[in-house]
Amino acid sequence: MKPGKKFGVVGVAFAVALTLFATSAPANAASADATVDIGSLYEPQNLDNTGGGGQGVVEALNGNSYEGLYRLTDGGVVENLLATASKVSKDGLTYTFTLRSGVKFHSGKTMTSADVKFSLEKVSAADSKSARKSSFKVVKSIATPDAKTVVVTLSSRSISFIYNLTYIWIMNSSAKDFATEEDGTGPYKLSAWKRGSTLSLVRNDSYWGTAPKNKTVVYHYFTNATALNNALLTGAVDVITSAQSPDALAQFKSSSYKISNGQSTTKLILVFNDRVAPFNNVKVRKAITSAIDNKKLLASIWGDYGTLIGSMVPPTDPWYEDLTGVNPYNVALAKKLLAAAGYAKGFTFRLDTPQYDPHPAAAAFIKSELAKVGITVNINSVTDDQWYNNVYKKHDFAATMQEHVNDRDVVWYGNP
């Protein structure tokens, strides 16, 4: 998110990531020429993770087609990937990385330090459009003394520098169109992308590491959870990447399916644009937060799953603090704050809401809650493209619902 917006947090951190498998899938996947069909609600906006690709591009290509110097395991441990070794100077300002030998891009070009430098600068340069640019402000210079060595000098020590590198994809510096084409080093390469339908990956037979067990992966994109779930029920897909509500799980509780639970960093947040009235008044923002019963909201969307956090920091972040006690549910206080702000009779605002679950259900609950204090919410359902262009890029909104999936992103929110 860009600076200049205050965040009223609905307070739901999805502490579980639910992936569902049809148990018949492994029999098919045993064949070296097998295709694994995956259902998802998150189609990429484009294929460039530094230019608004959204969470869909990470889901499809991260670790599959593109790799970094390091990778982050499911347990949060940083492991070497395209970098085999690193040395840090005594003052903590200079990092020297040794690159893995024999790594080739899908186009056949050998990966060198020039590609690593290009990829780091694609994020850290002054004209970079990457959302992670602020995490690399400490990068002072990048040198490439030889094809296998990269030297990065920082302007100040950074405890998170190596960790942040896990999010940087190493891209071919000779490539031209990152938004629509792919040329990574991963075990799968892009075969075809039919916008609005499917994204297909095929095994990279020249992969430097362990070869994938199956030949092809096809992501099938759906616009709603019902269609996604039905695809798994009918065998159209083998896996779906998420369950959008606890109610959906009941239909999969049989020996025919496997539900995989895991930690998630996804935060569902209610965002106010503090550049426009009435959200430029802190009393109004506090009033809305106090008027929403987050416990009931969580129960209505996720039942026994999920965690209230009271902020934009997930429990997996090292600096997490439970802030659910700040601005707790208090309808009387909400009305008092509105009156003090000059809105005793309430007001009306538009809530731009992504079309996919759980946003519509959360928005409907919030609308009902705020009606109790005299506030009228007009829910405006928007596509991913509309949200990205109007809300994220143009800041043309009063309030919006949105999931944020990144961890350790407190600097994005805290940047004044």
Task: Name the features.
416 residues, alpha+beta, Dipeptide-binding Protein, domain 3, D-Maltodextrin-Binding Protein, domain 2, Dipeptide-binding Protein, domain 1, 3 domains, 7-stranded mixed β-sheet, globular
Task: Explain what the structure shows.
The chain starts with 5 loop residues before the first strand and ends with a helix. It folds into three domains: 6-15 and 265-414, Dipeptide-binding Protein, domain 3; 17-41 and 187-262, 3-Layer(aba) Sandwich (D-Maltodextrin-Binding Protein, domain 2), CATH 3.40.190; 76-165, Dipeptide-binding Protein, Domain 1 (Dipeptide-binding Protein, domain 1, Alpha-Beta Complex), CATH 3.90.76.10. The protein is α+β, with helices and mostly antiparallel strands and 416 residues long. It has helices spanning 25-29, 54-61, 113-124, 161-165, 225-233, 282-291, 294-302, 331-340, 359-371, 384-393, 410-414; strands spanning 6-13, 17-22, 35-40, 70-72, 78-80, 83-88, 94-99, 139-146, 149-154, 188-194, 198-203, 216-221, 239-240, 257-262, 267-272, 307-308, 348-354, 376-382, 399-404. A hairpin with a 2-residue loop joins strand 8 (139-146) and strand 9. Helix content is 23%, strand content 26%. Helix 6 (282-291) runs antiparallel to helix 8. It has a seven-stranded mixed beta sheet, with helices on both faces. Strands 16-1-15-19-17-18 form a six-stranded mixed beta sheet. A four-stranded antiparallel beta sheet has the order 6-7-9-8, with helices on one face.
